[in-house]
Amino acid sequence: MKIRFVLPVSSWGHRSLLVASLSTLALTATAQVKPSSPVFPAPAAQAGDTTASGAVDNQQFATPSVVGMGPSKGLVFRYERVPQFNVSSSGQAVGLTDYSSQATKNARFMVKGYIPMLNHPHLKLILGVNYEREEFKFRERPAGYELYDNIEDKGLKTLGAQLAVIRPVNAVNWYIFRVKGELSGDYTSQELSVRDYLRVSSEFLYGWKRSPTFSWGLGVQLGYTFGRFSPYPALLYNRTFNQRWGVEALFPARVTARYNASPRSLFYAGYSVDGLNYIVKLRKPLRYEGANLNSLELRETEVKLRGRWEREIYDFLWFGAEAGYRYNYAFDAFDRTNNNRIKIIDSKLAGAPYASLELFIVPPRKLLKR
User: Fold this and answer.
1) Which residues lie closer than 8 Å to 175 by C-beta, 6 or more apart?
2) 329: CB partners within 8 A, 6+ apart
3) Which side of the chain, N or C, has fewer Cβ within a 10 Å radius?
4) Domain map of the chain by residue range?
5) Where is the DUF6268 domain (predicted)?
6) Each residue of 42-54: pLDDT tens digit?
């Protein structure tokens, strides 16, 4: 509803006084909404990862992002490396032996990209694609242990695509729906079977934008974060306390404290839980419960205590450096033909420090100011 003030032409003095009063009120309202010293322009209108959505005009539509968060990532290159650590496995089925050795290398390479298919203030559709490869090298080659020889020769790969729907409902409420399909395992281009290697995950979150600096939401995630395919609750909590400090969390999967050193330099500290699920084809079938197993489902879950630094190199180009300690919660093999919790191989990977480097492209600042 628009309100129009009509004044007589002769009332120039009163009109000037009214205009001045309205201008003062507008400046006061603006000062109350925007921080006195913004730490970064509003995040770009595209998703960086899962629930990291783009921001729109906070006065019209609510989104989960808040003032002070880093820029949205459009294209990401990441390399992670863990130095040598001890490994041990115990066979849980008749005929399987135990094994212990040392892994001399565990490395991961990842490429992710996000494309905005629809970018309206009230509805955003984001298409994401990703490719990841995890490699292991063991001190003895061949190890003489079927599981380790398979994953060392072929590596463990993930090729995926996801669609994220970010829907601001009004000035307070928003929701996000995401569905993701991945081909995960030790496949090669000659033996890739979608039916054998496909893994699907999804999530739904509904939230409230209390202010430009505070947004939170509740929902459910369905996936492999904790190893076995299962649903688990999720709590999103994004808050900027002042021009320096904030927190970004999707509990229980990850919680991160943020420190804005400058608009072009951000520091993070916290933890994350990462879960991977691979299908591993075996050269020699394993005999289990009177049947031959030609493949195994490898469930990998790890907890990382991490510190991270992100820094702008150029207007649209950033880099990230991360280091911390990785605790391996599970690295176990199961009978993929039987949806149960009975392990075929129980493995332990010793905790170890890790480090990673990342290069990513973000929307230029000139585009954000439009």
Assistant:
1) 167, 169, 204, 205, 206, 207, 217
2) 227, 301, 302, 303
3) N
4) 43-368
5) 166-357
6) 443 333 344 444 4
